[in-house]
């Protein structure tokens, strides 16, 4: 029996099956390959930097490399030409049965693994080197998210491939496809490295996702004229699809003559560049294309604009990603990024907000709506706002976690790294991460260097050891640390240039400490803190208390409300505001907006009093201004971040007693310092030595002057702890020294564990990345997978959707007017409604029970897959030894069963 014609086989085989429920019609395998391949070619046309990088890696000319890569990406699904795949839809495989037997009762295999095997054999048959062929097909085979080695693919795909006739037909189909497109398939002379691998892997995913959504109508007819003709005829449609989705050409940014001109839009006619910005511009002008920029400067020196200037002068045309420490800071940065782009973009540009809580962001919704308007403008293309696609957009603002996920050995890491490649990546608050997340940041820096990224690291207070680690991770031998504040620039030749600049002088912040009140019922200090806040605002003022746990914030908030009503009468309680993360997404968004409105830079004419009770959500990057602050003791760099929000903006009218900036620090055990058993120490147990040393250093500091004391205190605690002297009686000093030695030993061991865990969870370094492979889809349980994919360590959490039960069913609101969508399929509005009522909770017994409560309809949706229902009766639910209460004032509150509960 003669072998079937390859194109007959590819036409008779199906790639997309008939599915009336989803209004999906059958699409032949050949049509799907052509659609995805032409989309890939159109993407490469639109992205000349990526195309050029791949051309250089493959030693091919531009046009030929583009068509070759597009053809290889087209063949990403050649593994669907197999009995194991085709047998899944017998009706759609009827035509194929006349050519090859489609009978298969064995275990289903992943078709992408068979694609790897077929393409590897095809390239080897064309004299490709084994290592180069394996690398190329592994990149293409990662289009469902997981990276596998060629050995794994060959072993796992053999059972479902079919007999020798099938194997021969598969190889001939792939080879004939390449030959009819007339592409060069010469093996690269040199080894392929990390750059082409991650680029090709990410490009394949993007082309497959876009191609899979393209209407295949008319493609089958075009194929009657031959593959090459059909390809060329469909290419304009692929380009049009990219236009529709706002997959734009690289955007040219206006590069003004000076920093002052670049940011004149911030204060038209009056903007004056700050010393940091001027000095950085001068150093960049001396450098042969900056690759790494490190900015270490106090708060309020204009670091963000300096970073944006670095992007303007970088020559990077693929775009910019600003990585912030939290969702709240990302939300605030979005507006600044939009104004920057509006001032500098010529033509249209995509701007996206990239984090897990964007579904209800009103600013992003406005940008999405703008994408539908005619003309050229800054907008958010809808396609890029979906899950996992955010980093592919030209310009993005989001959390650092989105970038760090690219180096975790999990699903779609290559897609994220591809999204960052060739861009400028700004990482704010580079000091603010523990040993685990800091280890991931270092690993990310190694990859970003190989992916031709310009990195800007910004920090107010960077310990010298962390600076050395970051420079070393980027492949640079660190220079001597300059005098603070300073900028460091590493250019493309590896030359380091560092320069100090003069920071603006600010009023020194007076440091005060609480004295024990002696009150039996105030062991946690909250009554003292509440009394202090009321006293300090006797003549008005906008003040804050930043505490270390949600429980402390909730309790303090109720004490302050009660004190305000006692002092000033009914209604005065509304002068207090609570801000923490244990609230539903939509409620947090409202509070966040209110905090920025009341305490932000635009509220210049303040009247009366406002008291903010907050957790650490306010200490990083948010532009807030307080007249006075109380803070729990915390690591010294975080305390400095907090007090940087006191009298942040000059020229404000402040009450007479608050005209000098002051911060009062609370720590239990006035003479002994923070202890591991203290509630406020819980977030910092892994660094209890740093917390204790911070307490000692701050107890010996009467005033903090900017910038000198910022660096002195940070280096004292982190870089040279021997400079900290313990005060008190000989007995106290001996006790302090013994505690510190014990805690330092324990903390060092914990930090080693955390760094090791970061290495274990990450893909291999770029110079040995071929070792990165998962042996099939992760086989551990859900908890293992969640831990493996974490970008930050901490207590185990679950995303709970707060539901209210009545006799009529389950509802999203306490008034039971908004029914909860519990059956599928979910619409986008359904998913957003569930997201609005979701909150991340962490409490051991609670998490385990909620994780077991799976809702099938939610699990079927990408947006809600990890959501679990928390069903409340009368606003409460008892789970094990915990009562969970949804309080309108405090958010989600935990009570111990049988414990006295606050009203």
UniProtKB/TrEMBL annotation:
Family annotation (InterPro entries): Cas3-like_dom, Cas3_C, CRISPR-assoc_Cas3_HD, CRISPR-assoc_Cas3_HD_sf, DEAD/DEAH_box_helicase_dom, DEAD_box_RNA_helicases, Helicase_ATP-bd, Helicase_Cas3_CRISPR-ass_core
PROSITE patterns membership: HD_CAS3, HELICASE_ATP_BIND_1
Domain Helicase ATP-binding: 284-480
SMART domains: DEXDc
CDD domains: Cas3''_I (cd09641)
Enzyme Commission number, as recorded: 3.1.-.-, 3.6.4.-
Domain HD Cas3-type positions: 22-210
UniProt GO MF annotations: ATP binding; endonuclease activity; hydrolase activity; metal ion binding; RNA binding; RNA helicase activity
Keyword RNA-binding included in the entry's annotation: no
SUPFAM superfamilies: HD-domain/PDEase-like, P-loop containing nucleoside triphosphate hydrolases
Keyword vocabulary terms for this entry: Antiviral defense, ATP-binding, Endonuclease, Helicase, Hydrolase, Metal-binding, Nuclease, Nucleotide-binding
The organism's place on the tree of life at top rank: Bacteria
UniProt-listed GO biological process terms: defense response to virus
Similarity remark: In the central section; belongs to the CRISPR-associated helicase Cas3 family.
PANTHER family associated with the record: CRISPR-ASSOCIATED ENDONUCLEASE_HELICASE CAS3, DEAD-BOX ATP-DEPENDENT RNA HELICASE 47, MITOCHONDRIAL
Protein name: CRISPR-associated endonuclease/helicase Cas3
Organism lineage string: Bacteria, Thermotogati, Deinococcota, Deinococci, Deinococcales
